[in-house]
């Protein structure tokens, strides 16, 4: 049993994901109350070089052909033994396409509880998780002896280390009978406008109600000479193409102005647009979490506002 | 091909959420519940697979207000078997739930289990992978499309930025659905009414939940916000003028 905090490093195609640096920052704070070391756990094949940018006290590196690409199967097998053997105080995963695939399975396999959607730790080492689309926070003691944690961004700034940590190479266990294999990656479509390069975005959420109403946003965007972007439900309903998606699974944007129309401000959306210079939110729900990050807001109905705003923009030109 | 879809109701986030007097849980007395949107997608994906390759779709959920309506609506869309778990779930946690559903699923022996990628009411995204581990099946989440071929399924797994990984997974498997290949279909109430006459909801009593493995929340609170937005009041015209002012100020108009 140790007081160390493990961080399972997320990386994809030779790139360390931002969330890894956020998790390391969280682990650093947590280690202040546990007294242990921050250990990055890096799995891969010939990916040792990725260790250099990690702000950790040490790196545990496991190299194996079956770890060359992420699959939950191989990752879980490789991690289970390591966690059992070293019994860290906590293991932090991203609350992401990688971390969420493995943390809970390990929880069942090892019998250690899992704390999910953790945003930050308190000074005395409690977890604070974000629930109900960012409307509520839940706090509690980190389960002992070992807690598995999935972490969302927002609580810590991603920071890279300034000197390469010491790397300890660990022999991979037998990775046999794997049930998942990767066939190929499919690149995102780049034929459409790149919303991450726009100075202004008119962004629509579920509040737009239907496909026909998208026209109202398009007219405003045309008047402004900018593009329309969208939240996930709008894309999942087929009202806008995936190329316009802002958020965790879509693009990260940072325009000068982000006009959020009928978007509630769920954490997965906020992840993609919180770096915008000025966010103006139009949402009839005065309690919507979007107002926690917007600079300006209004609860007027967007269907009353849009035609008027579009006219006035045209006149102002 | 037998496909099971465990689904869950969650609070409607557009409503005001309050914390109960104990300070550690949501006040459920006025809470309006709706289907977890990713579960709606999971049901849709299951029906699509059935339409494409034949098979049987089972939808299962725990007792909740509106559960019967949702189950009948699923039947109207094409689900073949409807199951409702009853019992005291008030103190339950994700591990307890997953074990209860694992018992049910061991008996049903589906080839494929589709859950939502996550539900937003509690500490999220756990039940699918927990189920997989308790059933000894592989799990892949963030799935937005899949093809079954023989004893394998090829899934499209989403990563940030629109990158997709195509993965091949041995069946039986548990998949966490992010989005179905097409938006969940709408089904007319008249059709649901029809189904109510013939479809049957099987009730299963879950006694003695094993509660081990959960976590304890000691405090719930509304997020503390550094600075809330400055609200622009007035008529649509006045609000529009203010927004024009901001656009000009930033040199974007
Ligand atoms: C793994 C995962 C990844 C995800 N990735 C993303 C992502 O990349 N991007 C993303 O956006 N989401 C993502 N989501 C979904 C996210 O959790 C939310 O469900 C989504 O962001 C909600 O979209 P919304 O705000 O448009 O809809 P809602 O939350 O339904 O909000 C609609 C809002 O419109 C307001 N409204 C309604 N009518 C009007 C009106 N007439 N005028 C003004 N306001 C009105 C309502 O008050 C409400 O606040 C992801 C979820 C998961 C689980
Ligand atoms: N009480 C429940 N009954 C049935 N299915 C559930 C339940 N809780 C969770 N699930 C399933 O597991 C998925 C993930 O839920 P969660 O782990 O709560 O985020 C949901 O989308 C459902 O498919």
Give a summary of the structure in a few sentences:
The complex is a heterodimer of chains A (317) and B (253). Chain A has 317 residues and is of the alpha/beta class.
Biggest β-sheet: strands ordered side by side in the sheet of chain A: 9-8-7-10-6-1-4-5-11
- The computed structural class of chain A is alpha/beta
* Cα-atom radius of gyration of chain B: 21 Å
What's the total number of strands of chain A? Answer: 17
* Beta-strand residue percentage of chain A: 25-35%
Describe this structure as you would to a colleague.
The complex is a heterodimer of chains A (317) and B (253). Chain A is α/β, with parallel strands linked by helices. Chain A has two domains: 5-170, 3-Layer(aba) Sandwich (Rossmann fold), CATH 3.40.50; 195-316, TPP-binding domain (Rossmann fold). In chain A, 26% of the residues lie in helices and 26% in strands. Chain A has helices at 18-34, 72-86, 99-110, 214-224, 232-236, 267-273, 302-316, and strands at 5-8, 11-12, 15-16, 38-44, 58-63, 90-94, 114-121, 127-131, 136-140, 147-151, 166-170, 180-186, 200-204, 227-230, 257-261, 278-282, 296-298. Chain A is elongated, with a radius of gyration of 22 Å. The model of chain A has no long low-confidence stretch (mean pLDDT 96). Chain B has helices spanning 37-53, 67-77, 94-108, 127-135, 189-198, 236-249; strands at residues 2-7, 9-11, 33-35, 56-62, 81-86, 112-116, 139-149, 152-158, 164-170, 173-177, 201-205, 219-221, 230-231. Chain B is globular. In chain B, the strands form two sheets. In chain B, strands 9-8-7-10-6-1-4-5-11 form a nine-stranded mixed sheet, with helices on both faces. Chain B has 253 residues and is α/β, with parallel strands linked by helices. Chain B has one domain: HUPs (Rossmann fold, 3-Layer(aba) Sandwich), CATH 3.40.50. Flavin-adenine dinucleotide sits between chains A (205-207, 231-233, 245-250, 262-264, 266, 268-269, 272, 282-285, 288, 301-303) and B (13-14, 117-118, 142, 178). Residues 6-8, 36, 38-39, 42, 61-62, 94, 97, 115-116, 118-119, 122, 124-128 of chain B line the site of adenosine monophosphate.
């Amino acid at each position: 049993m140790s007081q160390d905090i493990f961080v399972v490093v997320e990386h994809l195609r030779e790139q360390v994901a931002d969330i890894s640096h956020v998790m390391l920052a969280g682990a650093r704070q947590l280690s202040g109350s546990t007294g242990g070391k921050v250990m990055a756990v890096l799995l891969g094949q010939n990916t040792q070089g990725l260790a250099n940018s990690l702000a950790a006290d040490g790196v545990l590196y496991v190299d194996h052909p079956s770890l060359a690409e992420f699959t939950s199967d191989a990752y879980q097998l490789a991690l289970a033994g390591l966690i059992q053997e070293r019994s860290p105080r906590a293991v932090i995963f991203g609350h992401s396409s990688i971390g969420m695939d493995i943390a809970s399975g390990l929880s069942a396999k090892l019998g250690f509880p899992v704390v999910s959607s953790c945003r930050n730790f308190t000074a005395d080492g409690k977890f604070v998780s974000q629930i109900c689309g960012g409307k509520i926070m839940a706090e509690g003691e980190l389960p002992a002896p070992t807690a598995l944690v999935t972490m969302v961004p927002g609580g810590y700034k991603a920071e890279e280390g300034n000197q390469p940590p010491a790397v300890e190479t660990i022999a991979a266990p037998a990775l046999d009978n794997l049930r998942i294999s990767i066939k190929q990656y499919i690149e995102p479509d780049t034929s459409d406008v790149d919303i991450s390069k726009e100075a202004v975005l008119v962004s629509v959420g579920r509040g737009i109600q239907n496909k026909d109403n998208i026209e109202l946003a398009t007219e405003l965007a045309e008047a402004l000479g900018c593009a329309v972007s969208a939240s996930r439900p709008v894309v999942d309903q087929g009202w806008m193409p995936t190329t316009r998606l802002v958020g965790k699974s879509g693009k990260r944007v940072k325009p000068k102005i982000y006009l959020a129309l009928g978007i509630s401000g769920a954490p997965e959306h906020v992840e993609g647009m919180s770096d915008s210079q000025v966010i103006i939110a139009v949402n009839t729900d005065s309690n919507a979490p979007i107002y926690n990050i917007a600079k300006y807001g209004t609860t007027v109905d967007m269907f009353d506002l849009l035609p008027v705003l579009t006219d006035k923009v045209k006149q102002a030109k | 091909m037998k496909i099971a879809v465990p689904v869950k109701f969650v609070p409607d986030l557009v409503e005001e959420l309050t914390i109960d007097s104990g300070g550690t849980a949501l006040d459920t007395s006025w809470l309006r519940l709706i289907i977890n949107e990713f579960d709606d997608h999971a049901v849709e994906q299951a029906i699509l697979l059935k339409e494409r390759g034949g098979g049987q779709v089972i939808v299962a959920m725990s007792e909740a207000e509106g559960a019967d309506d949702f189950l009948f609506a699923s039947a109207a869309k094409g689900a073949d078997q409807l199951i409702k778990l009853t019992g005291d779930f008030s103190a339950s946690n994700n591990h307890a739930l997953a074990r209860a559903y694992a018992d049910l699923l061991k008996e049903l022996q589906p080839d494929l289990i589709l859950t939502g990628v996550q539900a937003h009411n509690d500490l999220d995204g756990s039940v699918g992978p927990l189920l997989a581990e308790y059933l000894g099946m592989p799990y892949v989440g963030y799935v937005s499309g899949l093809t079954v071929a023989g004893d394998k399924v090829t899934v499209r797994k989403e990563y940030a930025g629109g990158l997709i990984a195509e993965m091949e997974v041995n069946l039986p498997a548990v998949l966490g659905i992010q989005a179905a290949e097409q938006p969940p279909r709408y089904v007319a109430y008249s059709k649901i009414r029809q189904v109510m006459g013939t479809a049957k909801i099987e009730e299963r009593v879950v006694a003695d939940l094993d509660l081990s493995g959960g976590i304890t929340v000691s405090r719930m609170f509304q997020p503390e916000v550094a600075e809330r937005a400055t609200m622009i009041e007035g008529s649509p015209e006045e609000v529009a003028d203010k927004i024009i002012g901001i656009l000009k100020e930033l040199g974007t108009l």
